[in-house]
Structure prediction request, 330 residues.
Amino acid sequence: MQLQSEPAPTAAGDEIVMRVGHAGICGSELSGYLGHNALRVPPLIMGHEFAGEIVELGPLVPELRPDLQVGALATVNPLWYCGNCPACLAGVNQLCANRRLLGAHRPGAFAEFVCAPAKLALQLPAGMDTRSGALTEPAGCAVRIAELAGAVADEDCLVIGAGPIGLLSLQMLRYQGAARVFIAELDAARLNMGEVLGGIPLQPRDTDPVAAVLEATSGAGVTVAVDAVGTAQTREQCVAAARAGGTIILSGLHEETSAMPVANMIRSEIVARGSFAYTPANFARGLELLAEGALRLDPWIHEAPLAEGGQWFERLIEAPGDVAKVLLRP
Ligand SMILES: [Zn+2]
Ligand SMILES: [Zn+2]
Prediction:
């Protein structure tokens, strides 16, 4: 990871340029950094979770997006979509056949300035700073997970993994009225965050999380189990912890392929759903919920100068300790 000087971007017709205020480091970027992610090939400016100040509007923007003004604070849905394919027409633009990710297919926000399509920008609500606004992208992922989880009011749920997506999903399930939300996580500091945010902590080093969930639910299992890790083991644990007719939401992408106990899924009519990113509506909802204070990662956000970004990639790959999200500040 190197800090380099590049010419500042300029806004073409339907684009805006933003001065980045805060840009979060995402787990997918850590795997990109390690060379495990075909989408992210150097040389590349990563960074897709960000908020900042609009500093330039392309010539077509005043007509396309009259609500966007120079000087306003905004965040950007980093997933560009075509708007015309069957997925886009169905409102699931994150599944667009032609999708392009800012910070992977075009330069991202680990920089002083970033250029983005104006149609993907969202102004921050009055009073919100770019520190909170930069959490909109992971919040949108959690909104999508909770949407696919369906009705959870008074139902028990399980979240495996207390990284940012696990912690935000836990809060979403509670926001939607879940009875108990169990959270399993190996890292003690992250498990503590899950407990502070209202989850029932399960430490896999001490107890088998599946056995603990089954015992707590009189053998029935949970209505919804969310995998925010994505290993063969956590995927299997979701199946084993789900009640008959329950739903597992697969979000973590750690392992590309893994064996699943399909016969158990058939005999228990387990519904398995992949959850990828967010619809534009989920993204906007994430921003609203952050503004309401319904979703948070504070007090475990760490702000660092952009120049320390490389070191933070290394630290996050090791054991980050009491940090849920690192926000880089150019
Ligand atoms: Zn991300
Ligand atoms: Zn499309």
About this structure: Residues 81-85, 87-88, 96-98 surround zinc ion (ligand 2) (CB under 6 Å).
